[in-house]
Fold these 4 entries.
Entry 1:
Amino acid sequence: MGANAGTGANGEIAPRYDTLIAGGVVVDPGAGLGGRLDVAIAGGRIAAVAADIDPALARQTIDAGGRIVTPGLVDLHTHVYWGATYWGIEADPVAARTGVTTWLDVGSAGAYSFPGFREWIAERSAVRVFALLNLSSIGLIAPTWEFANPDYCDIGLAEQIVAANRDVILGIKARIDRNTTRGVGIRALELARELADKVDLPLMTHIGFGPPSLDEVVPLLRPGDILTHCCTGGDMKIVGDDGLTRADILGLRERGLILDVGHGTGSFSFASAEAMLEQGVLPDVISSDIHQLAVQGPMFDLPTTLSKFLALGMTVEQVVERATSRPAAAMRRPDLGSLRPGSAADVALFELVEGDYTFHDVQMIPRRGTQRLVNTLTLVDGEPLERSEERPLQPWAVLPEHQRAAISVATGE
Ligand SMILES: [Zn+2]
């Protein structure tokens, strides 16, 4: 049965759609779609988005009454190389409870470990998995220090791996902070810049606690690059002591630098985020930096991170756009993160649950909120993801003490 209606042998009209998601409120600012609309799916693709589509045209109908219907979320900062790296979690079980259908793994794999990432993770996951290749050939097998041995920065080898895997590798990753670069300083970022330019892909740079300083980092950023951990409270933070976002960062952003949240375990400060928002500097992308530690809280998952920005005053439309079409554009894959007819039928349903919530940043500073996005159903290529049990965390996945204590109080565990 294809997407076209036809007349069966008994004279009845055959259904035109496989699935109809009916009665929900569509939120897809990137595609210019919003409001009370039904979403029809045929052959794994979005076939129509319109008001009051006749359920008789569909083989099955999903009741989305009381739900927000968005494109499957696109998480621009994740770590999903389970079993071969310090940080990796498994994407599929988390996707089924969070609505994240496209996962960009940023730097878990370097040249030596990318073949395994491709075969065991990218090709076997039910969700869409893409990667930024780490400049360091060993990737993130350990928690940090990946640039401390410059022998692992092999640009020629990385170029070969990129050339053979351009369907999966969408950019280059370099974590730049005092631990990752120990002893080599800004040299690692200079080499990452050279590699990104050679392969003509975006460079994602992580910032946190220096040295190096942000003064050394900024001259190496280019339009189209991604600066992740943009709301860090670390000493490389983009908000100055005067509370203003640095002029050089804003200038680069005017020309296309992407400011990405990447919450993680150590990289999200309410004070930094509030200072930016007060100036009207909204992050371009809201991502999770989900990994073995962050999944335990206070980050938890991408919908929780989006809910934190709702608590800071952003609208549902603004946060959804920053977790769908905006990250897809940053990945140079504007076909993803969209409900536009013809797109892959990656769809997420959410309940916007009203209540009295307390959210925390990585220093466990609290903020009150009244809304929480809770995922209720996730479809990839038109098929619902089954919820399944997640693997136990790795023995080394122990939260910093200040987070562990506060989270156990908050959750009563
Ligand atoms: Zn990360």
Entry 2:
Amino acid sequence: MSKISNFHSKEQYEAIIHQKLNDNQLRENLQSVMQTLRKNRKNTIGSRYTNWEELRELGRKVKQNALANLPTLLERFEQNALKNGFKIHWASNAKDANEIILSLMKNNSQNVILKGKSMASEEIHLNAFLKENGINAIETDLGELIIQLIDEPPVHIVAPAIHKNRYEIGKIFEEKLNAPLESEPEKLNNIAREHLRKEFQDFKIGLSGVNFAIANEGAIWLVENEGNGRMSTTACDIHIAICGIEKVVESFEDASILDLLLVPSATGANITCYNNIIKSPRKDGELDGPKEVHIILLDNNRSKILADKHYYRALSCIRCGTCLNHCPVYDKIGGHAYLSTYPGPIGEVISPQLFGLDNCAPMLNLCSLCERCSEVCPVKIPLASLIRDLRSEKAGEGRGGIIGYHNTHRNKIEKQSFAIFRNLATSGVKWRLLIWQIRIFGKYGNIFGSLIPGLKNWLSCRSYPHLDATLHSKVKNLKGVIYE
Ligand code: SF4
């Protein structure tokens, strides 16, 4: 399994973005899936919900309340979970979490673990760590299985293999699983099912993520569509669940509100096929279920985000992925171009805070600030405005305090360009003169633009825009309104 290192230079970002932009098959696949996901979400919300905006506001309040009281709720969750028979582990960083899982594997003399989908396990690069220690982590979610077979990280936080179409998946199964070449979804599902069923027949330890941890109940709630999550958490002797500390909410009712928002936002469905609400390990007299359940409460810089009075709102995320689906940048380049476990708008907000601003700084440019993400986020995280604020941090002009920040990422040329832009944009006369010049000389842009360093990269993948010939007169007409 390929491991994503945390630091990537601006040049690495530029190289991968150009590679993805030139990959026509990828762009076709992404466009098709994103359109479907957006359409499904819109149809479901339009036809099944009469109070979506009220529900979003409720969801925002639920998460706000949970974050405001997180230390208390975490303690309450721990107490109740212990009473229920769970074992609780606190992991302050990725290394701690990985070590906890490794010691559970070693103590039980196991070298295979079956995994349900878990972005937290991707965040800590668990598979690569276990492999280094002789342990085989087998992905059982269909999308995760596909990318594991080709040694790629997830391209999306909900749908990890959406960059591959069914024909490509058929070829992957043929090459890696020795299966007959198929392209029908049912047949592909059957191939995956048969392959995984063998793994499920004899395994001792299963791993999952957590969607909601309920403090009042000491229970965890996992949503999924394939049944592999239920198998990974119930057919084993030991279940390990990795739970980011921000997943804790106060009550079952609170979790239900978030679930109502999560499912249509993620896939456009009304409800997921499987809701696994786990309240205890197997009790005396029960015939199935794991004998031990270990919950790892993962911090990994989340408490630092929580302490920030401005950026803490990023922790409200319920990982629905709809901000990715609506992002006009993500749907052109896909998740790998972000060079982080978390791509898209939410990735741009949390990656710098989880992994360090210097490490993720170039990622903040992958946003047009169109605000679509903020409009669709089911828990109303102001994503675009947080991205803009993080850009100020990157330029050394923010509030400060983001981890892993040492140098301003604003170079001299950028600084001078913005000073010139500010000078022009704040003077009506200069701005009109600029528009007039662009209109006259703009037609030479495609010919000579590539000779200008600042425009060279930009023009290598798009045409110089043609300014509307009527714009000058429109601007003139606005004179009285805007400039005077
Ligand atoms: S930020 Fe909002 S839209 Fe994006 S994944 Fe999180 S909850 Fe979903």
Entry 3:
Amino acid sequence: MHFAVSVDGFVAGPDHDMRFMQRTTVRDGLHREYIESTGAILAGRNGFDSAIGDSRPYGGAWKGPIFVLTHHPEDAQPAEDITFLSCPVDEAVRIALAAALGKNVEVFSPTICAQLLPLGLIDEIDIHIVPVLLGDGVRLYDAIGGHPLHLRRDSDTPSRTVDLRYQPIRTTSGK
Ligand SMILES: NC(=O)c1ccc[n+]([C@@H]2O[C@H](COP(=O)([O-])OP(=O)(O)OC[C@H]3O[C@@H](n4cnc5c(N)ncnc54)[C@H](OP(=O)(O)O)[C@@H]3O)[C@@H](O)[C@H]2O)c1
């Protein structure tokens, strides 16, 4: 499970708007690490229709199989490297893992991650916090009526919080 996330927990703004990522910079070598460790990507149809359809992860620097889950593959626009799957979510993971040839499968869909977490099929939740508050959009994790799912951070004490301090950047346009 790998996402850039706003401080208030959104992976995309309203209507799958991803412009919040345009102003961000990442540490040197970060993308290279993921490009090398990723063997396949599993995504959902909304992500495909709104983003992957005409762009590729890591600015096109990563090459590999991308699997897109959808209940209606027949109306999806065929694209290079994309395989549309219409199968149970655990089977989709098996297919992607086989294609990843021992490397990681990155799941690029909060909807699919929410299905995989209770099945124990997510090994790691890997997030990069983007210094912005979006207020609305697609949440990292939505499980209506769900129960807390406690997390551990690498080798850190299981219950330890992470302390971050931000100051709002005041602009005249408000954007
Ligand atoms: N910030 C980041 O780093 C980052 C990274 C990746 C993606 N994103 C964003 O995340 C958002 C993804 O949005 P989302 O979670 O709402 O949508 P999504 O997972 O991309 O798409 C949901 C759709 O996937 C299909 N689907 C999901 N589970 C399925 C299953 N078990 N079987 C068959 N089909 C299934 C369904 O499509 P059908 O309706 O066709 O059946 C469902 O409506 C996008 O805006 C994307 O740009 C952000």
Entry 4:
Amino acid sequence: MKNFLKKITKNFQSNKKNLVKKKLGFFSDSEGILNRYLREKENWESHIQNTKKFILEASANKQKNIAVILGSGWLLDVPINELSSQFQKVYLVDIIHSKQIKHKISKMPNVELIEHDITGGALEGVYNLIEKYNTSNRQQLDEIELINTNFGLPANVTPDFVVSVNLLSQLDYFALAYLKKHTSFCPISLGEFKERIQKTHLEFLPKLKTCIITDYKETVYKDNNPKEIIRETFLLKVKFSDKEIANKWKWTFDTQKSYYTEGNTFMNVMAINY
Ligand SMILES: C[S@@+](CC[C@H](N)C(=O)[O-])C[C@H]1O[C@@H](n2cnc3c(N)ncnc32)[C@H](O)[C@@H]1O
């Protein structure tokens, strides 16, 4: 009976998690990333190579027991073969892992997939705010707890090396989009929630064991002409010191005007030893 109840509770929790992911759009986003990559393959190549190279450089001086990759997605920008041969164990953490990635990883005995909300609860919090309480009450938004759950790793696993890979600027995206669609929170409240999610992410990362790769500004050029900037958006609410920033580069993100119809979109990316 005890086991039966345990199973039902587990199933219910897993169904609820899937519902949250579905409602918040993670399933379609995961496919969206891959489709854009396939359309822009050559243009993304230098960004992908820069990211992989930086991850391997950052891993060089770390202990080689446990590596954790946050935002691993399709592993486009993750040097998984090298990491799995360097480290005893590699955990790949993302809100969702595709069946193709599950298949690929099944051939790597020391790599494990974890599906987890890396914000520590923003997604379920926002989902409950709307579905359960149907409220735009600022206090309730502020009360959504972001709890350090050690990225969903098994208890007593302590990472030697953590990578936050092209994730920081994305972490708040679905929670905010869902809030914008279903509530009347003002831009200031939404901006503060975004800031809390990004700041908390940095607090959860173990200092001196972490590297972060993130876009920090998106720029839209008219007709691919860098002199004609149509729009420039800063993506981060957190700051890094010059000492922490090891490298910067430009990522040719969308040349088909499918992200913004007005022009071609470039991401400005930085690599951080944290
Ligand atoms: C821009 S992609 C990074 C690229 C990825 N490494 C790849 O090769 O596909 C950002 C990743 O972060 C994941 N992500 C976004 N928000 C998340 C969250 N709250 N918790 C866990 N993963 C999240 C997305 O599912 C996606 O795979």
